[in-house]
Design brief:
Layout lengths: L4 E6 L4 E8 L3 E9 L1 H4 L7 H23 L8 E7 L3 H18 L3 E5 H7 L18 E6 L4 E6 L6 E5 L5 H11 L6 H11 L21 H12 L31 H27 L3 E5 L6 H7 L7 E2 L3 H4 L4 H12 L17
Parallel strand pairs: 1-4, 4-5, 6-9, 9-10
Antiparallel strand pairs: 1-2, 2-3, 6-7, 7-8
Helix pairs in contact: 2-3, 4-11, 5-6, 5-7, 5-8, 6-8, 8-9
The structure holds 5'-O-[(R)-(carboxyoxy)(hydroxy)phosphoryl]adenosine and zinc ion.
């Protein structure tokens, strides 16, 4: 094969993924082993279980990624891996396997920031799809995932200027906790979106934390407001009675509610409150920075309401990856690695995982 072919490895949270990407643009394969089945009953990711699952699935995922891409290890030009941010134990599995492959195959090792990966998902085209034109700089990118809510300004490749970020919960976390409060299950984003589509808007008034002129975000007040609303429908009973200091949204079992609780309407207004703030701040940032493009990235970028709110709100292109490239995957890591390597970044075999790595 021609072009620069990179094998990407991503194990930062609860997806085990390996992918092959050509020239930072063309996805040749993208194998994702989801751990949803494993964590579902806990209502969130259990770190210890996540790393144990990664260690049994990562090598088969790599084998399959090479096979599906129709390449052998002789075609690979570099090994890319997520070095952070993420769960320490999970990251270590990917970092260790990447180092071992780089050593035994004699290939350069490219460390990739997980958030950078999410952003560069916007440069990718899936197998069988027409390649998309590369996004035009300068751009504003809203990175919204289970662990992150960051508004970033980019003048060019690899230049990240942080405009704002969440001061408490991430946007995806707000979806996940909201879903847990509503008894909708995990992961919460898709569940809330589905419920909201069946619901009616405007029955509940949930707070929007504008935080003045800043580009920072806050979602914890919204979560508390939902909890307060839902408590009105909570079934009293000897075993479910609230104790002082109880945080029902942190327990594993969803609480019992009266059957007349308007779950779908609550989901609709809750989703609207999250998306409202995300969209408004992104639109304002694009105007104030004179951006040529707006990008969405991360798991919450799969949200159809968020996409709809931003599209057409500005007279510049608003772009987002296909849903499969929004949530965690290794194609975005192999894609970003092309640009990371181009600016001369490489790692030695002493590479460590960096759970708190900033962009
Ligand atoms: O990027 P990602 O897979 O993992 C992290 O890096 O955190 O994002 C996962 C997050 C979860 O919080 C999930 O609820 C949210 O993305 N998510 C969505 C949707 N699909 C996934 N949130 C809102 N609407 C969606 N359709
Ligand atoms: Zn992610």
């Amino acid at each position: 094969s021609t072009g620069r072919i990179i094998l990407g490895i991503e194990t930062s949270c609860d997806e085990t993924s390996a992918a092959v990407v050509r020239d930072g643009r063309e996805v040749l394969s993208n194998v994702i082993h989801s751990q949803i089945d494993l964590h579902q009953r806990y209502g969130g990711v259990v770190p210890e279980l996540a790393s144990r699952r990664h260690i049994t699935t990562i090598i088969p995922a790599i084998d399959l990624a090479l096979e599906q891409a129709g390449v052998t290890r002789d075609d690979i030009d570099a090994i890319a891996v997520t070095e952070g941010p993420g769960l320490a134990g999970s990251l270590l599995v990917g970092v260790n396997v990447a180092k071992t492959l780089a050593l035994t195959w004699g290939l350069p090792l490219v460390p990739v920031n997980h958030l950078e990966g999410h952003i560069y998902a916007n440069w990718l085209s899936l197998p069988g799809e027409e390649p998309v034109p590369p996004p035009e700089f300068p751009l504003v990118c809203l990175v919204v995932s289970g662990g992150h809510t960051e508004l970033v300004f980019m003048r060019g490749h690899g230049e990240y200027e942080l405009l704002g970020r969440t001061i408490d919960d991430a946007a995806g976390e707000a979806f996940d906790k909201g879903a847990r409060i509503l008894g909708l299950g995990y992961p919460g984003g898709p569940a809330i979106q589905r419920a909201a589509e069946k619901g009616r808007l405007g029955r509940f008034t949930f707070p929007r934390a504008w935080l003045g002129d800043s580009y920072d975000f806050s979602f914890s007040g919204l979560k508390t407001a939902l909890l307060r609303e839902v408590e009105k429908y909570r079934r009293p009973g000897p075993r479910k009675r609230r104790q002082k200091g109880d945080q029902p949204f942190l327990t594993h079992e969803p609480p019992e509610y009266a059957p007349n609780m308007p779950v779908n309407d609550l989901a609709a207004d809750y989703q609207d409150a999250i998306v409202d703030v995300l969209a408004e701040k992104t639109i304002r940032a694009a105007r104030e920075t004179g951006a040529a493009t707006v990008l969405l990235a991360g798991g919450v970028a799969a949200n159809t309401l968020l996409r709809r709110r931003l599209t057409g709100a500005l007279d510049i292109p608003v772009r987002y990856p296909p849903p499969i490239l929004c949530t965690d995957n290794a194609a975005m890591i192999a894609g970003a690695a092309y640009y990371v390597q181009r600016r001369g970044v490489k790692a030695g075999l002493d590479l460590d995982a960096h759970p708190q790595l900033p962009l």
